[in-house]
Amino acid sequence: MGRRLFRGGAGTRLLAIAGLVVALAFYPLAFPGALNVGVTLLLFAALALAWDVLGGWAGQLSLGHAALVGLGGYTFGLLTQSSRVSGTGGLVAALLAVVATAVAVTLVWGWITFRLRGPYFTLSTIAVAEILRLVAINARGLTGGAEGLFIFSLPEPLGLDLFDRTVEYYLALALVSVALGVAWWLSWSRFGYYLQAIREDEDAAMALGIHPLRYKLWAFAVSGTLTAVGGALYAIFLSFFEPHGVFDIGLSVELALMAIIGGTGTVWGPVVGAGVLMLSGEWLRALFKEANLLIYGILIVLVVRFAPQGIVGGVQALWRRWPVARGARPAGEGLEPGLRRASGPS
User: Which of 35, 73, 185, 336 is geometrically suited to a Cys-Cys bond with 235, CB 3.0 to 4.6 A?
Assistant: First the structure.
């Protein structure tokens, strides 16, 4: 394990993640008036990283992850607003219930739909998400129906006010750190290699002894758990949410686009994609008002057209084609003349 950690730059990536987290920890001190932007950016970066575990590393294009955001938000909101759950212990119990619900739902959901492939699997995720949205709308006695759910008050663990934006920022930063740690682990672990093999050719992976259904279920459970916990934090951040917002397919598409534009199956891609889309969306909305969605769409088309591997994938491809910049010798340099000719064109 120790040798694999430092093979292929895994150790460098871990140090870079630690450096980024430490740098982001100073954001509330540097930008105390922009905490809403910071919390939103971190939450969506964490949700995009969570989506990428299934959609990027395992290659299962899901457009139903908004259902897991809603599931986490409603589970946490309903339990913490119940008179039977109170205090810090009740808050921890509510978070554990969010995790347990996400694992149970994703295992059942995946067991039913992972027998489908390609666009059929994608359509099935939309269908399941729509079913959960309709349940949330019509179960008025439990969820409040279309009118939504308020979170009026929450316990204060260790004296921390969970409605304080600074506290929410550090909670979102903790979630991003965990999600980055998962992506880093997938980049060098055997589990990550198995998922990549399934993504590239599921039949060939099966011929090599990999059980696709088992590994896809675990990937979905990890992805769903991170998404549901992100949904719980999103519910605290909003304090009010309703089914049309947190279960909307538009949210699922947005999470998928962040990962795809940033670069799927990479450690940094979803974070870069979330930053680019969130910040450019805010900037274009302020600059072009109603025309911002048109320009926003054109930017997405340009990135997909000229960098189909995403921004991070495109930068990595350019880096590999630039041997002088990375200090690599041109092919054949240092060899005897005869060997240099045999090694290829100079």
Answer: 73
